[in-house]
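sorry for the late reply, my laptop died twice this morning and i had to redo everyting from scratch. anyway the thing you sent over, i finally got around to it. pasting the sequence first so we're on the same page, its 365 residues, then the predicted structure underneath. double check i copied it right bc i was rushing
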Amino acid sequence: MPLHLALLQTVTEHPHTIDYTVQLLNTGETREAKRSGPVTNLLPQPGQLVAVDDTISPLEIVHLYESVDPASLTPADRVHLERTTFPEILARHTPPEQATDPDAASRYMSWTGIAAQIWDPSGGDHPQADHDYLKRIIEQNNGPALDIGCGTGRLTLRYLAAGLDVDGLDPSADMLAICQQKADAQGLKVNLYQQSMHEMALPHKYKTIFIPCGTFCLLINRDDALQALRCMYDALEPGGELVFNLFWEIGKGGWFWEEPDGKWHRMFYNDLPNGDQVFQYMLTDKVDHAEQQFFARRRYRLVRNGQVIHEEIFPSNERVYGKYEIQMMLELTGFRDVKVYDGWQDKPEPFAGKSDVMVIHGRKP
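ok and here's the structure:
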C-alpha cells in the first residue's frame, strides 16, 4: 500500500529535479526524497500531501499529488492524521535546537503562555489523590498554610472555599493570573506571591507548607534545593510542618526517563473550548543517572483549522531524590521528625517502593 507523506521543505529546484524533505505519516519519520522528470507544473508546496509506493526505494516519490483531502483517506489513515500528526505536517520542518545549558537561568520550567492556558483543560485542575491528604494535614495543624507551586489554584482555591486559610506561591505570572481570575469568579479572597521556592521571602509565617505534584523535582540544582528547604524552614512557625511529594524511579515511566533519541514525542492532545487544539511534545536532551537529572524540552503547538498558528518551547528539567538523601537534606536544614511515606495513603506507610511517589513530612522544632 502507498505510504502517505507530507512535504515539509523544498531544498532545491531545477527544471527536471526537485529535492525535498518529507515526513511519513505512518511512522513520523523524516526522510530526504527526490522527484525527477518534468515537474514545472508539479512543484510541491510545504504542507502538501504526497504518497510513495513502499515496494520501491523510499527516497523515490512515484506519485505526487497537488492536493489530497485527508477525509478521502482510509478510516485508519484519517484517524492517524487527525489525532496524531496532521497538525505537524502542515508546519515547516525546523531542526531541533541544541540542548539547553543546564547551568542557564532558564533551566527551571515555569508554566507560562500556552503552557499556562492549557493547564486546566488538560486536567491540571482535577483534585487528585493529594487533595484529601493535604487537607487533613492543614486542619490538624490548625493554622495558615502555603501552597508552593499553586499554579492555577487547584488546591489553594478548593481549600479556601472549604474555609481554610491558604496562600499560594508560584514563579509563573500567567498561572497566578488564571488563579486570580478563578478566585474572583468564585468570590474568594486569595493571597498570591510570584516567587520561586528557593528565593521566597514572605511577610507571613505558616503552620503548614505543602508542595504538590512533585514540584520539588524541578529543582535540579542541589544547592538551590537546599536553599529552598531553608526558605521553607524560615517561613514556618515553630511546630509547623512541611509536606511534599517526589517522583523517584529513574528508568521507569515511559517517555519520562527514556534515553535521548533526537525526536519529539507526543505527550498529550487537548481540544480547547473555542475549537482550537493543543499538541504537547517532549524531546529528551540528556539523562544523567549518576547525578539523577533529566534534561528535556516541551513543545506546545496551537492548531486552528488544521494550521499550526503558534508554538512555544520550554525547558523541562527534573531531578529525582532518594529516600535517605531527601531525609538527610531536611535534617541538614533543621527539620526534625522527618518521615517518608509510600504515596498519598489514608493510612500512611513507610516508603517501601510500592508507589512511584514518596510523600515527605518534616517539622520545625
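Residues 111 and 172 are 6 Å apart (CA to CA).
thats about all i looked at so far, will dig more tmrw
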